[in-house]
Write a structure and sequence with these properties.
single chain; 2 domains; 8-stranded antiparallel beta sheet; globular; Arc Repressor Mutant, subunit A
């Protein structure tokens, strides 16, 4: 099995969900499940953010012109069902379903056509960036799929191929950075590069935020989330090593 990771970058006013995420940098969406058949697509997404951002996000999901993952720019005539499964101050869980019309297409539908059945999808959205991870068989034609995707998305969306590798659970465990959202990775790298973690500190948080052109609160949030994730990974890994070490 291999994993293929790539990302789309939406231009303004081309995707209502991306517009909301871009306006609310502390809001993100990850997929809990994503399923496709030749005739339909359904998925469950988990969003986190402020109550105000989640309210905007819910409205974007219900936008009459928005179909989850449909790549058709104009009205494709599809019937779309959107249902909120859970809602709290900082969490929104949304179910979407649509029946495909002759002109509809999507990333999962293209993957089904070019990569075959038995695919696993994982997605993460933050800002205008939409990252996909597809687990597929080793003999699937990835480049044919990616070329077809490029033709479908057109000029409104940028594309980036991130990696194509064999599935290796041990490598993923050893590399906690791969589990961090892109914005948190960028914040950590910048903090290290500019000496935020040096002793004495070479730059203050507000100065670093100015250099990155983001609000101080946003940078603080991203660093805290990243630090918490890395600390948890370290403790879990240390506990695993202790469990494997025989008592003397």
């Amino acid at each position: 099995m291999r994993e293929f990771v790539f990302a789309l970058e939406y231009e303004p006013d081309t995707n209502p969900v991306a517009d909301v995420l871009a306006a609310n940098p502390d809001t993100s969406i990850r997929s809990l499940s994503c399923h496709v058949t030749p005739d339909s697509l359904w998925r469950v997404d988990h969003a986190t953010g402020s109550p105000e951002a989640l309210e905007e996000l819910e409205e974007a999901y219900r936008d009459a012109t928005y179909f989850a993952d449909c790549l058709v720019k104009d009205d494709c005539g599809a019937e779309c069902e959107t249902q909120v499964l859970d809602r709290s101050n900082e969490t929104l869980v949304v179910y979407t379903y649509w029946d495909r019309t002759p002109v509809c297409t999507s990333i999962p539908h293209l993957a089904l056509e070019y990569l075959g059945e038995g695919l696993l999808f994982e997605t993460y959205r933050e800002g205008r960036r939409y990252r996909w991870r597809i687990v597929l068989s080793s003999d699937a034609s990835v480049h044919a799929f990616f070329d077809a995707l490029g033709e479908e998305v057109g000029e409104c969306t940028g594309m980036e191929m991130i990696r194509l590798t064999e599935v290796d659970p041990e490598r993923a465990k050893a590399d906690p950075e791969t589990s961090l959202p892109d914005a948190q990775q960028s914040a950590l790298r910048a903090a290290v590069e500019y000496g935020y973690y040096e002793t004495p500190r070479q730059i203050e948080l507000s100065e670093l935020a100015t250099k990155l052109d983001i609000p101080r609160s946003t940078l603080s949030y991203r660093l805290r989330r990243a630090e918490a994730a890395l600390a948890t990974t370290f403790v879990d890994a240390d506990a695993s090593i202790e469990a494997l070490t025989p008592e003397i």
